[in-house]
Write a structure and sequence with these properties.
alpha+beta, 3-stranded antiparallel sheet, Rossmann fold, about 300 residues, globular, 11 strands, 6-stranded mixed sheet
Length: about 300
């Protein structure tokens, strides 16, 4: 993390930014229903849907928005709201107005985040534990975040905020999440430390497959291992992904670069659900490639191909 950016983040720790002020900048307005396609919502939810969007700009007071089939919390709005309390308040209002579903755009991912989480978020956790009013872990104030953005490094935090608002994530397409008001049984997921141990025991074989086998053989081998592993719920899967992300980031300590391919192989090998999911290779001309699970990221490439 560069010194200037680090200084900006540390300066942003106290006092914490105002969630109420950010919420006051939002409005509600009706938009064309076809802006949210059946590919995102599913056929049943999308059919004839009346959609109200919560966004910045002119429009009705969002707390008094009319009932609609779908409430769409616009692109980059949710992560721009400081404080979990304010974000949950926004989700609760959307839930009350939505007859079918709430759709929210939230960038979720941890690539390149680990140094900042050590240097910035660890001190914040300590200060908050001591009762001091500082920004939340994950809050970022650098220019590239538009002044403020809360970073969701995996799905667990988002799912917990949704649950507090009486909602559950039922569908995901890249950074678009469909939430509905349903009863969700609380998941008894293994602790993050347990997932770290599991990933550590598998990383050597994943690295061997990455460097010595063709992609087809490597993916097939890891899928075969994953088919014999446990199938986690969404919280357990998020913790596994977090553990894999940390192990991959720490690979620099043994002279290896972080690798999206290594991460994907590890997840395929450690979760039965992941082992059944397609992965996508993306290639750019005169650039390196990328691999990820289908519909997990918002990226475009010159050439893509899917492997099941």
């Amino acid at each position: 993390m560069r010194a200037r950016r680090l200084l900006a983040e540390l300066r942003g720790t106290a006092p914490p930014p105002s969630g109420s002020r950010a919420l006051a900048e939002l409005c509600a307005r009706e938009i064309a229903g076809d802006l949210l396609s059946p590919e995102i919502l599913g056929e049943e939810l999308a059919r004839g849907a009346r959609v109200v969007e919560i966004a910045r700009g002119s429009g009705a007071e969002w707390r008094e928005m009319p009932a609609a089939d779908v409430v769409w919390i616009g692109r980059d709005v949710y992560a721009s709201i400081p404080g979990a309390v304010a974000r949950v308040e926004l989700l609760e209002a959307a839930r009350r107005a939505a007859r079918r579903a709430v759709v929210v755009h939230v960038p979720v991912g941890d690539e390149g985040s680990h140094a900042g989480r050590v240097v910035v978020d660890a001190p914040r956790r300590i200060l908050r534990a001591l009762g001091l009013r500082v920004a939340e872990p994950g809050d970022r104030f650098g220019v590239e975040h538009g002044g403020f953005s809360h970073c969701f490094f995996d799905e667990e935090e988002l799912r917990r905020e949704a649950r507090r608002a009486g909602l559950a994530i039922v569908r995901r397409r890249a950074y678009l999440f469909v939430l509905r008001e349903i009863d969700e049984i609380e998941e008894r997921a293994d602790a993050f430390g347990v997932e770290m141990v599991r990933a550590l025991t598998e990383v050597r074989d994943a690295e061997r497959a990455r460097t010595r086998e063709t992609p087809e053989r490597a993916l097939a081998a890891m899928r075969a291992r994953g088919a014999e592993a446990k199938q986690r719920g969404p919280i357990g899967r998020a913790r596994l992904q977090r553990a894999i992300g940390w192990i991959d980031a720490l690979s620099r300590a043994v002279g290896r670069r972080p690798s999206c391919y290594r991460r994907t192989l590890l997840e395929l090998a450690l979760d039965a659900g992941a082992a059944r999911e397609p992965v996508v290779f993306g290639l750019d001309v005169e650039s390196t490639g990328h691999i990820a699970f289908k519909d997990r990221e918002e990226r475009s490439f010159d050439v893509t191909f899917e492997v099941r």
